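Dear Dr. H.,

I hope your travels went smoothly. While you were away I took the liberty of generating a structure for the chain from your last submission, since the lab meeting agenda had it listed for discussion. I wanted you to have the full record in hand beforehand rather than looking at slides cold. The sequence, exactly as received, is reproduced here:
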Amino acid sequence: MDYANIILEMLERIKKLEQEVSELKQTNISSRAAPVDDEQRAISKILSLPHAASKRDTTRYLFEGNVYLKNRLVLAVVKAYVAKHASVTRQQLKQVFDKTLQGSIGVVENAEEAELRSDHQVRFFTKPEEIIHLVDGDMYVCTQWGILNIPNFIKRAEQLGFEIEPINK
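The corresponding predicted structure, in token form, is as follows:
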């Protein structure tokens, strides 16, 4: 794993977020000073509606001829990877789909370690048909995917040669 590139990428993300926050603050300051026109008033009204803030991202993804939600896409890609690399070990799979792609839980976890969590049946795919069986033991795939971490996973999957197409509604 190339930690230097990961750290550089995270620093770039932080810098970008800081810049966006700064721009938002500037926009808020300048909008208070300037008179509000009808277009700005309409945008503010739309953004303040309850459904706008609670609108969930319902993007689906086309992978190998099937349509998936985010978490099911991850499960399908990991299963496809294991099918292509039948002799992969648990440690190797954790390196291929490293923890930084998902966040605190990680993409995959050893079944024994995952089961130490009281919420493992919510955080991981644990049904018999969802369990990843490897040469040295079983792995669970994380179910916790959203608009902030799925792009990292898709980028990695594409690096591995998988084609994924987002389907926006």
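Two observations you may find useful: The first helix runs from residue 3 to 33. The chain has a mean pLDDT of 84.

With kind regards,
E. W.
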